[in-house]
UniProtKB/TrEMBL annotation, chains A, B, C, D:
Record-listed L-aspartate binding positions: T102, N106, D107
InterPro entries, alphabetized: Arginosuc_syn_C (IPR048268), Arginosuc_syn_N (IPR048267), Arginosuc_synth (IPR001518), Arginosuc_synth_CS (IPR018223), Arginosuc_synth_type_1_subfam (IPR023434), AS_cat/multimer_dom_body (IPR024074), Rossmann-like_a/b/a_fold (IPR014729)
Subcellular location: Cytoplasm
Superkingdom to which the source organism belongs: Archaea
Protein name as catalogued: Argininosuccinate synthase
Reactions listed under catalytic activity: L-citrulline + L-aspartate + ATP = 2-(N(omega)-L-arginino)succinate + AMP + diphosphate + H(+)
Top enzyme category: ligase
GO molecular function annotations of the record: argininosuccinate synthase activity; ATP binding
Biological process according to GO: argininosuccinate metabolic process; L-arginine biosynthetic process; urea cycle
Amino acid sequence: MAIKWLSEKYRAQVVTVTVDVGQEENFSEIEKRAYIAGAEKHYTIDAKEEFANSFVAPSIMMNALYEGVYPLSTALARPLIAEKVVEVAKKEGATHVAHGSTSKGNDQVRFDLAIKSKMPEAEIVAPARTWGMTRQQEVLYAKEKGIPIKEENKKFSIDENLWGRSIEGDTISDPYAEVPEEAFEWTKVTSTEPLEIELEFKEGVPITINGKRSSLLEIVRYLNREAGARGFGRVDHLENRLVGFKSREVYEVPAALLIYSAHQDLEKAVYTPLELRFKRYVDQLWSDLVYRGLWYEPLRSLLDEVGRSMNKYVEGVVKLRVKGGGVNVLGRRAKYSPYAENVASYERGWYPTDEMARGFIEIWGMHSLLANRSRA
Amino acid sequence: MAIKWLSEKYRAQVVTVTVDVGQEENFSEIEKRAYIAGAEKHYTIDAKEEFANSFVAPSIMMNALYEGVYPLSTALARPLIAEKVVEVAKKEGATHVAHGSTSKGNDQVRFDLAIKSKMPEAEIVAPARTWGMTRQQEVLYAKEKGIPIKEENKKFSIDENLWGRSIEGDTISDPYAEVPEEAFEWTKVTSTEPLEIELEFKEGVPITINGKRSSLLEIVRYLNREAGARGFGRVDHLENRLVGFKSREVYEVPAALLIYSAHQDLEKAVYTPLELRFKRYVDQLWSDLVYRGLWYEPLRSLLDEVGRSMNKYVEGVVKLRVKGGGVNVLGRRAKYSPYAENVASYERGWYPTDEMARGFIEIWGMHSLLANRSRA
Amino acid sequence: MAIKWLSEKYRAQVVTVTVDVGQEENFSEIEKRAYIAGAEKHYTIDAKEEFANSFVAPSIMMNALYEGVYPLSTALARPLIAEKVVEVAKKEGATHVAHGSTSKGNDQVRFDLAIKSKMPEAEIVAPARTWGMTRQQEVLYAKEKGIPIKEENKKFSIDENLWGRSIEGDTISDPYAEVPEEAFEWTKVTSTEPLEIELEFKEGVPITINGKRSSLLEIVRYLNREAGARGFGRVDHLENRLVGFKSREVYEVPAALLIYSAHQDLEKAVYTPLELRFKRYVDQLWSDLVYRGLWYEPLRSLLDEVGRSMNKYVEGVVKLRVKGGGVNVLGRRAKYSPYAENVASYERGWYPTDEMARGFIEIWGMHSLLANRSRA
Amino acid sequence: MAIKWLSEKYRAQVVTVTVDVGQEENFSEIEKRAYIAGAEKHYTIDAKEEFANSFVAPSIMMNALYEGVYPLSTALARPLIAEKVVEVAKKEGATHVAHGSTSKGNDQVRFDLAIKSKMPEAEIVAPARTWGMTRQQEVLYAKEKGIPIKEENKKFSIDENLWGRSIEGDTISDPYAEVPEEAFEWTKVTSTEPLEIELEFKEGVPITINGKRSSLLEIVRYLNREAGARGFGRVDHLENRLVGFKSREVYEVPAALLIYSAHQDLEKAVYTPLELRFKRYVDQLWSDLVYRGLWYEPLRSLLDEVGRSMNKYVEGVVKLRVKGGGVNVLGRRAKYSPYAENVASYERGWYPTDEMARGFIEIWGMHSLLANRSRA
């Protein structure tokens, strides 16, 4: 639709790009629609592996959850999509780069800043930001111009990629009303059998699943399918948008939530308490940067370094069970864990003397008790 | 057992105190055992309501989860138990106060500091810290002295109260081995029916459940029973003990996890992004203080004030569903939420112009982009 | 000048307001100029005491230093000025509220958000943002219209109030070039004699100086004059503006820096280590909020509460000496300090035994050493 | 003195080690005293360059100031001294390692943990911790055994190295009483002439001073001497000791304070606002770890990596003036600064339109204003 509008408004030759980041789509259908709408040329770029290895992998190292619940699926894909589009733009000698975001969403920030960063000379056009149509008016415009629109768009606004499926839209905008079952696709219950998983990590990233060496892409797909089939992986919250307001957002993210659970558990088996608290702080910072379109902020790269460094020792296996919408960590074996049974045991090993323990406790609590006394 | 030891070792008249903080116990049985073991006098103090209202309630306001998973059940009860014991000690004119912790646990820190704080003149005696017996040796000693010991103690070390049940011990000390089903009591699956809950909060604390006004004590008990019956509420992790090492800890905490989910969701519906991040920071600080025996640190009281202040507007209803070990938040109605359908809607309401949006994005990303350029 | 422009452009009846927040100005001169420029009515509002007590006082409690050096003088005054202007606007039945900020400064954010907050129905007009004149062009415009302009404006852009004097402008825009002496007014050396100060605080705010009970306004003025006369109080840094870029900013802030030194010292005498770190975190958050125009963010009010609460025990006297551009804290007497000579003394009092000390050290370092071993 | 005691108590052959970390001492005198006291063998190890390059340099990158004021001079040297002692111990086949700290100081923690880390098999002996003598009794014991003691020890307890001189002791233990001038050595005023300095940094560490390429060791010594001669570099505060209580501590640290001022200024010229805030957080964490004896905590090494990474672009020159106890930063030239005169200028360059600015402001403040409205 934007294609039509662009070619009419700017008298531009429009080159369209679809980036495959793992969404379930009929890419040849999209291509067909692009040409119908007036594209001069269409690119379909398979970026699934790159998305998995360069965007999903660091987000695993960072346990990236925006506001504690959202694994950033859409936010993570935006810089990659923009980079691919910019590559095409440069190859095609384009002067303008367009994207489909509106003026009230987060994605415009992510796209604009990615483009500014990678191709500062380009002029950015965001038709949906300029034309000022509501979603309803857009549907009308599309009809009028004879542009086919996917059915689901009528009820929900969906964004999907390897790392998650997000659902928003006016039909679920009452934050108290339960989201209708039909909105979900990845987490429909089709199996009541518990799902047992052994996930092996190396340097913070999964490398085998139930003993089978697999690419991250394969592991994520497997977990989305299998954990999703147990109804696991739904998120529903009021999200603080970058662009000033709260929005009700719903996600289907089975693989992400599972892998984070396992990864966090393994980190905890390895890190000192001081490392753990620092890492959680870094995790949150990173998530905020990525959500807020600041993929190109230097601090993001620095935190990536921190993430890699701190994941160097995150190696081992985590056992989990998914059952009826919940996951439990059942055990973990961490290669570099300071856990020592002979230290921790109640039967054997390390026991400080009474006096040593008293010494610790006295000094540990002393500042607090002296302060209380002085204020009494 | 400690009673025997104390009366033998110190030739002391031992007064024993059991504080009921919601654990499933036969208190008259305990009393009987105390007299058999040689207690001069025994007190059973019902502190359930106080525990719920003065310890559990603030922990709800603080979403208190140590290292992201443990709702502090044992840690929260220790200061209260110590305070009750100190009350008795003062009443009885005691010079010494004893507790049962060992020299390698967290609880000794919590008890010692509570006693030092409330009764600095008392001498603290911790028999298990002094006598240097392993758990096995303790069992032998008890047998020899004819002191009955609860069966379960042989396999697991259990601590239980209203807010949770904790399981530890050498039989589960291999962190990779799955905890045997027999270790669990609260979360055995006895119902496959989904549990629907509407939890109403006022000033950050639940006041009705499914429309029925109830005390916090009742609500917690109901949720432990009903969510536990769905197998919900298990936690298994390697915990960073205050006393220097990692320990495998397992918890059954259905009500705590449920209420925190609901409470956090409601907070997010109310807080600005800045408030939310500050609150999560405070939440973590508070949890660390309480876990680490610093209930009497002045900062804990200050953070409590912050918690109360920030929960003033946390009012409304959260809908949840517990199903097969998992919980989903389904919706929320928050009285003081800045969420505004007409702002958030894709159809109506607030839309910045293209130029306004561009202005925001340019300024928002400017520092980052300028920095990248200067380092290229 | 904006007056002229407003009355010409909008055919508006312009009511002008000057708020006295302690700047050295000839207010009747300003009034005269306002009428010459075409104002219908002019208000001069004395807000000095309110500025001192409601804006400077909390900033003292918060040791408010943006990026470690800037005491927020201008930033603090903006909300107050805006509130006074809005009061007049409401009284006069105005529909528009104007301010003089440009489109690249921080102040527009502070003014706009203050006005939106206090008078959401008002339309905001910022002539300098609209007309698109450079400072040079403005000078020309003013000349043309016969509007007198203060001399100094030609070289530096000055903003001044009770809490500080800020200097910026193109003549100092080379961040390596030393700022010429003529730019400074408050910190010209006129005395080489050391300045001895005893500052007494109650609830975190100065109440006497060298034993003499004085209002905060008086104390600030005294310190600006006397410490300034020793050349104390200059700040020069590259500041991260809210509006996306770095700017070279120079400040004269003798009283602010002095009072903060004393206040921080006193806080440290009172707080536990945990309180101190939390407070410094809060200090920084508060400073960022205020600098960034978020005076009306709910978190700011919450942090104010925290500030008041944590300053309740900040009471006592601090001795300082200002000498040749530097300040030294010489001593402090804090009413509620946990400092205890008999604990701290090397001769007397508290000494843990060797075993107690060893116990503390072993447990204190244990997590770290175990982790090192497991990664070796 | 400890030598005598050790050889008497343990019948040990005592090997003594003095590590030269830049303190002003007569090392051959120390050696002589060691032999008199009964040492079998004495080592004097020159570790000045290593101290400068491996301990002082990272502390510069970290702007390491404990509780905002203390540059960690003593704390930094402890791990190095311990490592040197351990090297000798291993070479000499020693089974015990001794140090001179008492049971109430911070240094015992630093020494013990360093030794445990580098030579876990060694038994640690801390005579002053074991013998239980007060400082007065020690002086008596020394006299009795004919061991010479340095004069100054009678009034103050001094620790000195390249990075600072610390003064403590009972004569200054009244925190309100001004420290007598005789306590100071490095910061006696001997020059009233302003000191002009141009300090050039590369990767966060000074490499030239006033244009002259110098080692860090030379630069620090020069600044200590020259800035000290202007009376610059005194610190006086109530310090939160690791070991549970507050202590009045006084430091002479001219070079450290000067270099930190310059370094922080340069960092601010380079970092984005997000980097700056993160770095200051890291700075504080690092300082706390080092102060608290956790040099061997894995997080310390990680933060060192962060420090090096973030200092990669901290390159350029800072101009400062020291005058009568104060320092002013006068200008800076940073190679990788995003500062751009044409962006920052009030005359030229970047100006957003009125609408763009409004867009930014509206979105920037929106969450806060919506929240206020919903709570009204």
